[in-house]
Prior knowledge:
By secondary structure, chain A is mostly helical. Helix content of chain A is 67%, strand content 3%. Chain A is built from five helices and two strands; from the N terminus they run H-E-E-H-H-H-H. Chain A has helices at 4-23, 38-58, 70-89, 92-103, 112-132; strands at 29-30, 33-34. Chain A has a two-stranded antiparallel sheet. In chain A, helix 1 packs antiparallel against helix 2, helix 3 (70-89) packs antiparallel against helix 4 (92-103) and helix 4 (92-103) packs antiparallel against helix 5 (112-132). Chain A is flat. The N and C termini of chain A lie far apart (50 Å). Chain B is mainly alpha-helical. Chain B has one domain (2-493). Chain B is built from 22 helices and two strands. The interface between A and B is large, with 73 and 72 residues.
Amino acid sequence: MNDRNLLKGLFLAAVAVIFGLGAFRYDIGRVERAGPGFFPLMVSSLLLLLGLGMAVRSRFMKPQAMYFNVKNIAIILGSLAGFAAFSHYVNMISGIVFLVFASTLAGTSYSIRRNAIISAVLVAIAFVFQRGLGLQLPLY
Amino acid sequence: MMEIIHNLAFGFGHALTLHNLMFCAIGCVVGTFVGLLPGLGPLATISLLLPLTFSIDTGGALIMLAGIYYGAQYGDSVSAITMKIPHASSIVACIDGYQMTLKGKTGLALFTAGVSSFIGGTVAIVVLAALAPALGEVALKFGPADYTALMLFGFVCVSFVTTGSLLDGLAMCMVGVLLGQIGTDVNSGVARYTLGLPFLMDGVGLVSVALGCFGIAEITKNLDNREERTPFSGKIKLMPTWPEFKRIIPSALRGSVVGSFLGILPGGGPVIAQFAAYAIDRKVSKYRHEIGTGAIEGVAGQAAADEAAARTSFIPLMSIGIPENAVMALMMGAFIIKGIQPGPNMIAAHPDLFWGLVASMWIGNCFLLILNVPMVRYLLSIFKIPYVVLFPAILFFCCVGTYSVNNSLEDVFVTAAFGLMGYVMLRLSLDPAPLMLGFILGPMLEENFRRSLLLSRGSFTVFVTRPISGTLIALIAIFVLWQMSVFVRDVRKARQVAPA
């Protein structure tokens, strides 16, 4: 089952199905007076055909294994979500510190001292952005 | 001819104010610097730095954005020459450039690239100044059906050029178009695909999509590779000897012409221009037997074409209003955020912005030359920073960048979601660049498509009967049929080899 070409077709078909089914919730209209659902339905139908075509084609091709590193992408997404959560409930400085300490778990080596330095530098840069460029960062 | 000179003089009048000079310089420096970083091509660089321009006035912001773009393009080729870090945007620079580094001629390669880029950029600006207004007048005759056909043609060209597989690319364009559907429908006011979330009413943010697909996804991919590069630490000698210098010029001029031309075509732009210039040098250069082993010509031609195409690719965007590749689509999004709709009316309505931008490109050229020729050795110190320090910093900039667009933390979650999607796509070997184009052109495509059908009372023949759209549709049909036949042949061949 771990065939990149097959998964590619299925992925595209899945996107098409999600948007295509969603399009029925809106007025489709007629060709000369298209409703809001017309265009997405048309595009997703085409995409569905393409995706299924690729999935079918993959059955005739040599399977290529797909590489997927769940750990790294999970760490990165988790640290982004944590940044947003900390920034919302506490303040952005804590968000930045969390981002650095969490995301570096995906790196080749881990050092608390190095992370502390990185966090300090980034917080300083954030202050420069806030004061110098007028970005509204809720730092504290 | 006099008119061009007059217009350029007018433009320099705007670009040479202290204010705009400063923004141009900042754009070039920051763009080059971020472009040097591993894993960040022009798309990620521009979206990362876009928020910096929010608090600047429109003219300055456009000048700075353009500077970021060609700075990033240049920084990319520097990292390709010294470190062989190939981004999609500077693969060719890796060939001879890196060979020269291996021979200990890094300085010469960088000097060649710098000077050639300057020549390429200068030629391209003349082309830009001459062609954009003329093309703008033609574009005023375009109807909605023509625009629809033109956008579809652009999708086909970009899909083919960037991914090499038309069907993969077209599929990505469609995914992008569908993502562009999220938000309020302009015609009916219906909120589509918002999942009831109020912050999706205005659609998904451009910066979120770009940073997710190109920033977050690329970082994660680099982390998967887990290779620490040894930092570049060689000494570099910059100045060439006179005979070496003489070899740069013909090749750079050839590259400039090729690049200027290929930069204008749909689907064109720096990448394809580099390949073409390199191929031509291999055919006609006096030193063609040396190319591939670290020849000056192998660097000069492609570097000139690279910078020339980076500038002439503004022509379709600013005269017709249709971006020809993903980077230009992002620029268009940035223009719109600043309240400027690029297109035939831009030159007429905002001549100061347009000509100021064109003139600033030449000034940017000079900055790049100063920045890259005498100061390149200091720039290279950025490679001494290990990736484990760099990537949390890049993530931080991604967060701050997406947050500052609307001062909303929800956007950070949206970016994370697109990061996941981008990572999945990278692992499925789907190139996200056509997605970007589809995403930005999607709403425009829908509007023009619906309007054409409204005007023709529901008859699809309108796309075929008008001369401009008819020609474009015919070209698309030929292209798609050709690719379909390749597809079918592949399946047949595979079937013969291994019966299912």
